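User: I'm new to structure prediction. If I give you an amino acid sequence, what do you actually give back? Let's try with this one:
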Amino acid sequence: MAISTNLARLPSLRYFMEVAHHGSFRRAAEQLNIAPSAINRQISNLEATLGVQLFDRERGRNGLRLTEAGKILQYRVASVMNELVIAGDELNELKGLQRGHLRLGVNEVVAGDLLHGMIANFHSNFPQLTYSVMVENTPEIIRRLQDGDVDIGLGYNFPPTGELEVLATLKRETCLITSLDHRLARRRVVRLDEITGENFIFPDRSVALRRMLDDTFTKAGLKVHPIMETNSFTLLRQMVQNGLGVSMVVGQFLQHHPEKIAFVRVDNPAIDGGMLSCCRIAGRTLSTASHAFSASVKALFSQYGG
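Assistant: Good question. You get back a string of structure tokens that encode the predicted 3D arrangement of the chain. For your 306 residues, that looks like this:
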């Protein structure tokens, strides 16, 4: 096995590792294509510098053996070489981020509240990257992951399945949202019965949040006025801001948003939060760009307690 040339600028250590590996000055010299006397001189200089003997030199076929000091040095230098290899791999990956394509599937809320800031940061650091972003509900993101249309999925309430590998998660509360001039806008927390009779803007029935709200409202006997139903959370929030009604969404905005909306915590154990997750199909190799993106998502989630 050839010794790495990462230590080429430290010839005495490189020569030491070759001799330790081959157990012979001659075989090490053949591997390095230099004279055995040159290797012997370098190792003698190294021993003098360190003040220890690295090899027991005895006559015979097996006369060259590492001393205890030599074994310690071999172990430590091997660790350094391994770290140099890892560093080289990481630097090559960083070079790979100078180009490439990132394919993402995201929920609409994530696209509006989170993704634009992340892509802007990526673009400033790696301007040669290109992007494909599919804005879908969670079941459709899963389908696109399965079909290989996207590499990374970022959204709420991915089902637990062995097919998906979760790369990062962040638990978010479900909040009542109102316009800023609504009677409940200045409250920090509300009971569920306090929204009785309110005009309510519901998310589409295909969304897990809607199914939770229907079940919770029915069990609580809560009566609201369904004034609008939409599969667009952007439109839902705009209508709340304009005073058409109130609604509930998972999670306060992760990024600054221009919408003027109040978020109020709901005091009801049945109003569960949602899990924002970054996922991929288990076992598939991520591209360098996808790997870096998922790492940045994990770092961002950690800032919010994820």
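You can read the tokens as a compact description of the fold. Here is one thing that stands out. DSSP finds nine helices and 13 strands in the chain.
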